[in-house]
């Protein structure tokens, strides 16, 4: 089973996306409907709202006065956050009940307009965002009976598409006819969601093509932060760092994110494997260590566990390494040294571009990786010298999660 969030601003078209997914067989849960359930007359949620905002939020027959509440929360961000603290945990609890009752092979979709934080995004296997230009959304909302002023106020009270994008694995544009959006969802279902669910259920990594160097992408940092949050959540809040070439601004790289999960021991790494697999990051058998570098050549310090992404839409290497071991330190040191040394970046760029041409079309990515090892071994020594001269130490915190 995988869980998918569909999110977007009011009038963006997220309901259309959810409808098409339901037609394909997804179990779709409407968060707006759940939100109504958790504040129904006589519910603990409604009692909490009345206590927080006063009895004026109730109608004469004891139901929620939605117009009165909307007038308060849409005009006051603090009040809106207070309301969300009441309703969001209850809505999430109901979603979990429905998810638990779904078939084991289900794709469970949560239509959730108010997905606003990285922690919320991390609780799903995939987040699909829907965007549309503000004027198009205003026109749609007026067609539903809202005044123009009310429509613009509601849009302004929510995240913008630019703020929402880092929380989303996929952003679908909905500027044209419904058929265009439906077609994009059809492709997403067959090419990504179905194989993703199958891979998670089988504990299998997604297939990858031959290594291909691409220009630096501005999205890599946000993508890494989002996936790191997902991994950290599965690992109980452990530290996760963005490492490797995609963590170095301006450096071409394969479109494969490298993340490092910090653990206290290999026993802990093995204990976390089932939770990581369930979250979409299955272990890859046969890869149990990194190549030792001369300055710390004891192989015992280079042992690790390795996971990858079950999502065919985003390749990921997840290196699970023990805190303060040489391979853990090396990953952080090489990243920070390269960021600090433009000449080293230029040198590494030239190497990667040459190897990309040499291994173009080779389906075995390991050969590309192994061909870099002589340069990396030398670079590690240079990075060690830099660390000594600058007093470098690993940062106390990672990309996501506390210092482990």
TrEMBL record:
Keywords: ATP-binding, Coenzyme A biosynthesis, Cytoplasm, Kinase, Nucleotide-binding, Transferase
Keyword Ribosomal protein applies: no
Role this protein plays: Catalyzes the phosphorylation of the 3'-hydroxyl group of dephosphocoenzyme A to form coenzyme A.
Keyword Mitochondrion: no
PANTHER family: BIFUNCTIONAL COENZYME A SYNTHASE-RELATED, DEPHOSPHO-COA KINASE-RELATED
GO CC, any one term: cytoplasm
Enzymatic class: transferase
Binding-site residues, ATP: 11-16
Primary localization: cytoplasm
Family annotation (HAMAP family): Dephospho_CoA_kinase
SUPFAM superfamilies: Nucleotidyltransferase (SSF81301), P-loop containing nucleoside triphosphate hydrolases (SSF52540)
UniProt similarity note: In the N-terminal section; belongs to the CoaE family. In the C-terminal section; belongs to the UPF0157 (GrpB) family.
Alphabetized PROSITE patterns for the sequence: DPCK
Superkingdom field: Bacteria
Name of the featured protein: Dephospho-CoA kinase
Gene3D superfamilies with a match to the protein in the record: Beta Polymerase, domain 2, P-loop containing nucleotide triphosphate hydrolases
Gene name of this polypeptide: coaE
Localisation: Cytoplasm
EC number: 2.7.1.24
Pfam families reported in the protein's UniProt record: CoaE, GrpB
Record-level Gene Ontology MF annotations: ATP binding; dephospho-CoA kinase activity
Pathway(s) served: Cofactor biosynthesis; coenzyme A biosynthesis; CoA from (R)-pantothenate: step 5/5
GO biological process: coenzyme A biosynthetic process
Substrates-to-products reaction catalysed: 3'-dephospho-CoA + ATP = ADP + CoA + H(+)
